[in-house]
Write a structure and sequence with these properties.
Helices cover about 30% and strands about 15% of the residues. The chain has 2 domains: about 350 residues, Alpha/Beta hydrolase fold, catalytic domain (Rossmann fold), CATH 3.40.50.1820; about 190 residues, no CATH class. It has a 9-stranded mixed beta sheet, sandwiched between helices. It is of the alpha/beta class.
C-alpha cells in the first residue's frame, strides 16, 4: 500500500505500436512471430521500439492538445538538470499536467477528477511508461518513472521514456473519504488506468508523430496492485508489466493489518493517551531483534552461506519454531531476551494471518524472516491502526462507515470484527454496485492468457520481510498461475523474492535493483531474465539503507532468482553475486 505513508512503487507495461485497437499482426515493429517455424507452441516475439524526437516545441504541442473530457492545465518546457536521478541530470523534456472527467459527486457533493502529469523527453526512445503510485493515491507524483527497489540509480524518464503518473481520481484532501463516492472507488481500483492510457497514447502520437512502439507499466505496493490489475484488464495496452510487492488482495491485507494490531494489543504493557493499548509495547524493538537473531540461527545457512540473508525462505519455515527456538520468559519477566507464552501466542497469530472465529483464513500467513526492524514495526505497530483502518472503513467496506470514524481509527481497528465486518469487502448495496473485492482485484488473477498470447511479459518481485502484503500470498498466486499454464508460466511471467526486504525496500537486504532493463530485453529481444542482480545499500552507498548490517562487505550483491529457484552459495567471495547460483 505504499505512498509517502502507505507504500512504494515500481512496475512496467507495454502497448501496441499501431493505433488504437490494432492487434499485434498489424504492428510493423512486431518482429518475427515465433509461432511459425519449428516450435508451434512458442509465443509471439515483439519487436524493438524505435526512437523519435519531439516534433516542435512544448508551446507548439500545447496548441494541438485536445482530448474528450480533458483539460490540459500546464504545458511547459523543463530545462535539463531541473530534475535529477541518483545525482544525474535528467534531460530537457516537456511537462503536461491536466485532469479528466471532472464532476461533482451526487453522494458527497465533492468535486472529483482524474489528475495526471506527463513528461515527454525531447529525445524519445519510442516507449511509454505508466508510473503507478502507491497507498490510497490522491497525489500526482512527479512522473519520472520510478523503477523500483531502494535507492534507484536510474528512472524511465532518464532512459528516454514518455511517462505518466496520476492521482487515480481523487485528491489528497479527499483521502480517505473519497471512498464515500462510488465512482471515485472504481477510478481508484481500475478505471483511472483504463481512462488515462488511451489519452496518453494520443498525446504521445501528437508529440512524436506516432504512438509508442512499446508500453510498460510499473508500480510497487498499491502500484503493484495497479500493475496486477492492468495485466488482466489492460493486457491489450501493455507489453511489459512490473509489479512490486503487489497488494493485489489489498482489502484482505487491510483486514490482516487490523488483525495484527488486535493480537499485539493483547500483550501490550502500556496504554496510549486515548486509553487504548499501546501495541508497540506488545513486541518491542529489543524483542524483535532477538527473534530475528533466532530465525537467522535456524535458517541463515540453509542456502549454503551464513551471511545474514535467508534465501531459502520455504525451508526456513520448516526449520524455525517460534515456540521452541525462542526462549520463554521465566515468571513472565520481559527483558528483551525472551518472549512470554502470551506473546508467543499473539506473535504466532500475527504470522499465521487473520482468521475469523471459525478459523477460516481471511488473509495469507507471513513467512518468518530476519527483517523485523523499523520497517516491519512501522506497518504492524503504526499503520495498522492509523492508515489501514481508514482504507478499510471508507473504501473497502460497503456501505462505507460514517466520516466520524476518521477521528477514532485506532478504536475502529482494535474493535473490527473478523466475523461481522470482514465480509463487507465483498458486499454491494444501493449506489455501491461494485464490491471492493471486485474493483480492487484482478477479475481472474490466474487467467493472463490474453497478455501471454500477445507476447507480453509480467515480472513480479516481493520482499520476504514485507509486513503488510505477504510474500506467501504472492508465491501462492504464482503457484496457481503456474498450474493454470500447464505447470510452467515462466515463458511470460516470473516472480523474484527478495530476501530480508521489507515493503518495497529496506530491511537487511540487497534491495537496489533494476527490473525495467531486463524487462525490455525480455519483451523486445526475447532474453528472459534468469536472474537480476541486486545490491545492498551499505554505508558507502549514495543512498544508504540503515538496516544493512555493518558486518556485511561493501557493495554486496546477490542474484534475485526466478521462483521457485533459490540463490545458493557455490563458493567464493561471500559478498559477490557470482558466488551464488540459482537452483
Amino acid at each position: 500500500m505504499k505512498c509517502t505513508s502507505i507504500a512504494l512503487a515500481a512496475a512496467a507495461a507495454l502497448a501496441l505500436a499501431a493505433c488504437g485497437g490494432n492487434d499485434i499482426g498489424d504492428n510493423a515493429n512486431a518482429g518475427n512471430n515465433s509461432n511459425s517455424g519449428a516450435n508451434a507452441n512458442a509465443l509471439p516475439q515483439l519487436g524493438a521500439a524505435t526512437p523519435g524526437t519531439l516534433a516542435g516545441t512544448c508551446a507548439a504541442l500545447a496548441a494541438k492538445l485536445s482530448y474528450a473530457n480533458t483539460v490540459f492545465t500546464t504545458v511547459t518546457d523543463v530545462p535539463a538538470g531541473t530534475l535529477t536521478v541518483a545525482g544525474k541530470p535528467i534531460a530537457e523534456h516537456c511537462l503536461i499536467q491536466g485532469n479528466m472527467n471532472q464532476r461533482v459527486s451526487s453522494v458527497d457533493g465533492k468535486t472529483y477528477a482524474i489528475g495526471f502529469e506527463m513528461r515527454l523527453p525531447l529525445a524519445w526512445n519510442g516507449r511509454f511508461f505508466y508510473q503507478a503510485n502507491g497507498g490510497l493515491d490522491g497525489n500526482v507524483v512527479t512522473a519520472t518513472g520510478e523503477i523500483g527497489g531502494g535507492g534507484p540509480t536510474n528512472d524511465a524518464l532518464n532512459m528516454g521514456f514518455a511517462v505518466i503518473s496520476s492521482d487515480a481520481g481523487h485528491s489528497a484532501a479527499q483521502n480517505p473519504l473519497f471512498g464515500l463516492d462510488p465512482q471515485a472507488r472504481v477510478d481508484y481500483g481500475y478505471n483511472a488506468v483504463a481512462t488515462l492510457t488511451p489519452m496518453a497514447r494520443q498525446v504521445i502520437k501528437l508529440a512524436y508523430g506516432k504512438e509508442p512502439d512499446r508500453s510498460y507499466f510499473d508500480g510497487c505496493s498499491n502500484g503493484g496492485r495497479h500493475a496486477m490489475v492492468a495485466a488482466a484488464r489492460s493486457s491489450a495496452q501493455y507489453d511489459g508489466i512490473i509489479a512490486g510487492d503487489p497488494g493485489f488482495h489489498l482489502p484482505k491485507a487491510a483486514i490482516g493489518e487490523m488483525w495484527s494490531a488486535q493480537q499485539l494489543a493483547k500483550v501490550a504493557t502500556a496504554t496510549t493517551s486515548n486509553g487504548l493499548p499501546d501495541i508497540t509495547t506488545g513486541f518491542t524493538a529489543a524483542e524483535r531483534q532477538m527473534v530475528a537473531s533466532k530465525i537467522l540461527a535456524r535458517c541463515d545457512a540453509l542456502d549454503g552461506a551464513s551471511d545474514g540473508l535467508i534465501e531459502d525462505i520455504k525451508a526456513c519455515q520448516a526449520n524455525f519454531s517460534l515456540a521452541n527456538d525462542v526462549p520463554t520468559c521465566t515468571n513472565d519477566v520481559r527483558d528483551g531476551t525472551c518472549l512470554t507464552t502470551a506473546q508467543k501466542d499473539a506473535i504466532g497469530n500475527v504470522f499465521s494471518g487473520a482468521r475469523n472465529s471459525a478459523g477460516a483464513a481471511l488473509y495469507a500467513s507471513f513467512p518468518y524472516d530476519a527483517g523485523l526492524g523499523q520497517g516491519w514495526s512501522a506497518w504492524k505497530q503504526s499503520n495498522s491502526i492509523t492508515l489501514d483502518p481508514a482504507a478499510a472503513a471508507f473504501t473497502f467496506t460497503t456501505p462505507p462507515q460514517s466520516a466520524a470514524v476518521l477521528s477514532q481509527l485506532s478504536a475502529y481497528a482494535l474493535n473490527f470484527s473478523m466475523d461481522n465486518d470482514a465480509p463487507k469487502i465483498f458486499a454491494t448495496g444501493g449506489v455501491y454496485t461494485e464490491s471492493s473485492w471486485s474493483f480492487m482485484t484482478p477479475p481472474d488473477e490466474t487467467d493472463l492468457s490474453a497478455l501471454k498470447q500477445r507476447g507480453a511479459k509480467l515480472i513480479v518481485y516481493h520482499g520476504t520481510s514485507d509486513p503488510v502484503f505477504s510474500s506467501n500470498d504472492t508465491t501462492d498466486w504464482y503457484q496457481r498461475l503456474t498450474a493454470a499454464n500447464g505447470g510452467d508460466a515462466s515463458n511470460f511471467a516470473r516472480l523474484y523474492t527478495v530476501a530480508g526486504m521489507n515493503h518495497c525496500s529496506g530491511g537487511p537486504s540487497a534491495d537496489q535493483f533494476d527490473m525495467l532493463t531486463p524487462m525490455i530485453a525480455w519483451v523486445e529481444q526475447g532474453k528472459a531474465p534468469d536472474s537480476v542482480i541486486a545490491t545492498a545499500r551499505d554505508a558507502s552507498s549514495a543512498s544508504p539503507n540503515a538496516d544493512v548490517p555493518s558486518s556485511w562487505g561493501a557493495g554486496r550483491t546477490r542474484p534475485l532468482c526466478p521462483y521457485p529457484k533459490v540463490a545458493r552459495y557455490k563458493g567464493g567471495d561471500i559478498d559477490s553475486a557470482s558466488s551464488f547460483a540459482c537452483s
